[in-house]
User: Which sequence fits this backbone?
């Protein structure tokens, strides 16, 4: 179905791990890859059997950002003055919306360098797990561009305006430990433990009450714009919806019966 990446299915299909698969370009993003990723996340969002999604890269890198050779086909830039605008609008923006509005947990497994749009592809996920070999760079300024792929929206919210501007202006490389200290990364693992430790977390996510996680994501998303009063009202409304799910009933029953809950994601 997809040519630009590989998909591994785990835990009876509840977890889907997407691997960008062009190690020769350090998994640089192309228009076909962006289109396929958008289609994949759209499909995942509507598949009740899938409970968690992760994205990683084959080879030494997570993602080196936009493939400039793909973007600037010889002669195309001269013929189309709006080329960059169209790539961002038609390929990157729809993918950002699919990932950030996904009803399932979306986790980035950053196994190596994550640069430019590749860094933001990781940072727009719900959280990031990183290998000690990973680094992050907002390299857009190095070629005279601004952060896209949600960069100007999410980066200030993750690290504050001053640090966001510092990272964007300088293109500074952040090692995994520095990214962790800034709050860009949830966990950092040694290279030897990265796969095992990450899979433990992914297995847990795949067996969590998915409906509650979806509602939690929705509440956090609205918190950017809501007043405290509106956010408290939203919490009450979403808590009511959560309390009607089968997972809530199972969670209460398991607690009272002193056993491990068996959530179905419904």
Assistant:
């Amino acid at each position: 179905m997809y040519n630009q990446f590989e998909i591994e299915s785990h835990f009876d299909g509840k977890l889907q791990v997407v691997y960008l698969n062009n190690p020769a370009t350090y998994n640089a993003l192309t228009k076909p890859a962006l289109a396929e990723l958008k289609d994949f996340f759209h499909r995942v969002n509507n598949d009740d059997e899938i409970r968690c999604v992760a994205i990683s890269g084959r080879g030494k890198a997570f993602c080196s950002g936009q493939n400039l050779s793909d973007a600037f086909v010889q002669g195309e830039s001269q013929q189309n003055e709006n080329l960059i605008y169209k790539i961002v609008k038609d390929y990157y923006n729809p993918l950002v919306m699919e990932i950030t509005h996904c009803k399932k947990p979306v986790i980035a497994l950053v196994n190596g360098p994550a640069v430019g749009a590749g860094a933001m592809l990781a940072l727009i996920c719900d959280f990031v797990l990183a290998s000690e070999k990973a680094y992050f760079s907002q390299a857009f300024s190095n070629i005279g561009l601004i952060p896209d792929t949600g960069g100007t929206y999410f980066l200030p919210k993750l690290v504050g305006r001053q640090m966001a501007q510092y990272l964007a202006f300088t293109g500074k490389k952040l090692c995994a430990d520095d990214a962790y200290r800034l709050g860009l990364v949830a966990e950092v693992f040694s290279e030897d433990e990265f796969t095992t430790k990450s899979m433990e977390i992914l297995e847990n996510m795949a067996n969590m009450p998915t409906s509650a996680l979806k509602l939690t994501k929705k509440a956090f998303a609205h918190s950017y714009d809501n007043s405290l009063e509106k956010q408290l009202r939203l919490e009450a409304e979403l808590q009511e919806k959560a309390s009607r799910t089968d997972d809530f009933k199972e969670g209460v029953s398991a607690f009272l019966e002193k056993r491990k809950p068996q959530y179905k994601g419904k």
Notes: The chain has a mean pLDDT of 94. The domain at 5-207 is CATH 3.90.226.10 (2-enoyl-CoA Hydratase; Chain A, domain 1). The chain has two domains: 5-207, 210-257. The radius of gyration is 19 Å.
